[in-house]
Amino acid sequence: MLCSLSERIMSTRPIFVATHPRSCSTAFERVFMTRKKDVNTVHEPFGDAFYWGPERWSERFMNDNSAREQSGYSKSTYKDVFDYIMSHDKDVSITSSRRNRSLLPCILRNLVTDKRSRRMDVQDGVTRMDPGKRLFLKDMAYHLLPPDQKQAHIAPSMKHAANGAEVDNPTMLPKETLKKFHFTFLIRHPRRSVPSYYRCTIPPLDKVTGFYHFMPNESGYDELRRLFDYLRENKIVGPAKAGEGKPTEEGEVTVTVVDADDLLDNPAGVIEAFCNEVGLSFTPEMLSWENESEEAKGQFEKWSGFHNDALGSSSLKPRTKAQQTPTPEAENEEWQAKYGEEAAKVIRDTVDANVADYEYLKKFALKVPPL
């Protein structure tokens, strides 16, 4: 028998959806962008520090000073990003454009609370955060962990919040910082996500995304699994699993994993189940967002080209046809026809390298019957 929300102690912490690229995560995020009255959304903020800032780990722009300066994020540290996220408890206006995001640390250090304005809005590229709302954050797990299983260390800007070296922590954020979030997880089979990501790193899309070559270590499954395991082992999530309806103790949150294929098969069922786990109410109106385009454009601007499908959509509806699972031979043939023989091999190797991590996380996925 499932527990009602009133029988469970629900978290009010900021919701953090940890995921990997091309997992339908932006469509998932758009659902919650419809909740303007009670939810603030923040879109992939830790990529600022991971790719562009002085504490960067990614090799993609490591030696490209010009690209980093042009991004507007070259001075963004992990602390700057964290402060930006947590500023939802103050009334703060922050420009979303690249040329102004480099001013973010100065803005945050000089926050002034203005109780007269308590709504979130996007006007002239300015996002206003309402302090009375729940925060919904979506980001790539690999933005928090060093690539290629390199030894992690707490980001220098965050060491003030760390408990010593934290040698078992695989992320750049202190354990106490991670505890401030209500973590959930979104996954998709690599046979779907990896080819989709590859397409974003080759012509013609690469000129829009600014990602001019494919990097297998950006697939993100290894980092997502290691983050997931660390959070479970330290009881930052769990031990109860989503959907079991078991009572939770104060401070506990369920292990909540959503599979994108389940989401696409039954959007209403999956979103309602997710909302039940994170302490939000569900309404069918969340699945349509005709009037959300300006806010979405402002939030998605910095990752241009990666979110065209989500920006061009107006709702999340069930698939009309059941998803077929092709054979590896059929997949190879399709990828070779689209991208060439050499690229098809790279995609195949990358998919195969990530299946085990996906299948491990899939075991924890919410069980929602298809329509």
Describe the 3D structure.
- With about 375 residues, the chain is α/β, with parallel strands linked by helices.
- It has one domain: Rossmann fold (3-Layer(aba) Sandwich).
- Helices cover about 35% and strands about 10% of the residues.
- It contains 16 helices and eight strands.
- The protein has helices at about 25-35, 45-50, 65-70, 80-85, 100, 105-110, 175-180, 190-200, 205-210, 220-235, 260-265, 265-280, 295-300, 310, 330-340, 340-360, and strands at about 15-20, 40-45, 90-95, 120-125, 125-130, 135-140, 180-185, 255-260.
- The strands form two sheets. A five-stranded parallel sheet has the order 2-6-1-7-8, sandwiched between helices.
- α15 packs across α16 (about 340-360).
- It is globular and about 55 Å long.
- Mean pLDDT is about 85; it is low at about 1-5 and about 90-130.
Q: What number of domains?
A: 1
What distance lies between the first and last C-alpha atoms, to the nearest angstrom? Answer: 22 Å
Instruction: Kindly identify the CATH topology.
Output: Rossmann fold
Radius of gyration of CA atoms, rounded to a whole number = 20 Å
Mean pLDDT: 84
Give the helices and strands as they follow along the chain: EHEHHHEHHEEEHEHHHEHHHHHH
Give the structural class: alpha/beta
What fraction strand?
Answer: 5-15%
CATH class category name: Alpha Beta
What is the tally of helical segments? 16
Largest sheet: 5 strands, parallel
Q: What CATH architecture would you give? A: 3-Layer(aba) Sandwich
Q: Name the poorly predicted regions.
A: 1-7, 89-128
Annotation, overall tally of beta strands: 8
Helix coverage percent = 25-40%
Biased composition (Polar residues): 311-327
InterPro entries: P-loop_NTPase, Pyrrolopyrazine_biosynth_F
Protein name: P-loop containing nucleoside triphosphate hydrolase protein
Region (Disordered): 310-337
